[in-house]
Design brief:
Layout (H helix, E strand, L loop, with lengths): L1 E2 L8 E5 L3 E5 L5 E5 L3 E3 L18 H13 L13
Antiparallel strand pairs: 1-5, 2-3, 3-4
Length: about 80
């Protein structure tokens, strides 16, 4: 995303409203940007998953990962509930 002030922001869109976008960024950072401040919005086309990871994952690993990805937005700040 490129903002009108010239800054480029990267992240995963965690939420959208009529007035803005919320990005989940690296290391737990969250940033909300007003749509009026967005000059350009585009996908990088690059997966966040490391290249070749699927080649070393078991069927169970892929199932668990898929479940996690489907439900991650419903989690609170702890990305791994129950893990301490």
């Amino acid at each position: 995303m490129r903002k009108a002030d010239g800054r480029t922001l990267t992240g995963v869109i965690a939420a959208e409203t009529v007035g803005g976008l919320t990005l989940k960024r690296e290391i737990g950072q969250v940033e909300t940007v007003l749509r009026a401040e967005v000059e350009e919005l585009r996908s990088s086309g690059v997966s966040l998953m490391p290249e070749g990871l699927e080649n070393v994952m078991t069927v169970c690993d892929v199932t668990d990962l898929t479940r996690f990805l489907k439900e991650w937005q419903n989690l609170d700040d702890d990305p791994l509930p129950g893990k301490e």
